[in-house]
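thought: fold this chain, then report.
action: predict
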Amino acid sequence: MQKNINNKFLTIKINLIIKKFDKKYNEKILEIRLRIKQALEIITYKGKYFIDNEGYKVIAQKAYYISKDDIKKSLLVLTQNSIYALERQFKEGFITIPGGHRVGIAGKVVIENGRIKTQKDINSINFRISNEIPGIANKIINNIYDKKIDYIYNTLIISPPLCGKTTLLRDFIRIISSDIGKKIAVVDERSEIAGIYNGIPGNKIGPRTDILDNCPKAKGMIMLIRSMSPEVIAVDEIGKDEDIKAIKEAVYSGVSVLATVHGKDLKSIKVNQKLKEFYLEKIFKRYITLSKRNGVGTIENIYNERGDGLI
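observation:
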């Protein structure tokens, strides 16, 4: 089931167009893209469309064109008139809003002492809709959980963007916490997994789940191992050197790790200079590859640590 963005996070004009689109087509929306002086674009499970004032799918030339004022008003709505309060998120290139929806931003990067401080003169906004699908992991949970020894295999979910890896990870967390009954700790750096707002999770992540929200993954993993005694740790979109080091520390501490990463297939991990050591050292015992071949969340294969296909 799709969760819609709360009306208060869209401008009146854009919200009205989206409502008209929903009424006409009833398609699950993945992204709403606003670009200055470009056509309003909506991406759904079925395709990519330019949209006019009445919510119809049209060619770009007949679509509603985003003005500088649309971007300005959207930012004010998103930040509740306090852009400076979200400086860290602007630096990272996104804002997370209730429900785990991520709003990407692009503009002029401000550099200070050789590091990114923030962004200004924003020219693009991308609303990425979080889709919670309880039960999506039911059919493959036994591929990562050994009932005989009551053990969760270290698992890496691999897919290109918008192929459902966070959705699958979220459901693994729910099942492990609710049905299997293990203590699982989540480092939710972008507030997408649990969808926490004012300390309350907006997504179904189970009764035995502890969440460290808006915290860098590497630091968060170490903090949780020391403070929450988890049996399993889950993180989304790994890739930095410090992530790799923290995952190894967690595994060597006896904690099972579930993680996701951007990639096309298992080969993309084997040739990645940072990630290939996971494969060479057999850190992960399961690799799950996803695509959109038969719709978002298509499971292409599940591999063991040797790269043998299991399905």
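thought: worth noting. The chain is about 25% helix and 30% strand.
final: tokens above.
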